[in-house]
Amino acid sequence: MSLITPDFGLLFWMTLIFAIVLFILAKFGFPMVTGMVDKRSERINESLRLAKEAEVRIAEISQEQKRLIEDATKEQARILKEATDERAKIIAQAKADASAEAANLIAKARTEIEAEKESALRDIRRQVAMLSIDVAEKVIRKDLASDNESLALVDKMVEEMSKL
What we know:
With 164 residues, this protein is an all-alpha fold. The longest helix is centred in the first third of the chain and has 82 residues, at 8-89. Helices cover 90% and strands 0% of the residues.
């Protein structure tokens, strides 16, 4: 019995075993692999969708910021016009009061714009951090041997993301 010139019995058993292994893989192995690939594809598509939504939200916030600046500029122009009219009626005191009020409104508008901007950035950072942690957890889950190492790594990642 040689492996170079096998006899009919060896070929029969090798073919039968190959057919059984192929059947088992086709029945149980391949669907599991394709299912995992499909799930990963769906997860990637969902991440891309969330990233596009975040991008749209940033654009909306930017437009809102521009609108608020325009409103503040219009408000400033209106207050300055009122100050000019008052200057004609009342001397220096009315001019000083109008300028102080205009500066106060501009500062208030800028503070509100900055607060909304910071809030939106915090939300986006939080979402990106959670997505990053989810992806990193799934990737690193295979590489880490113990739960202690996993917890230490997750704590480190959360700490780094909170610094942003």
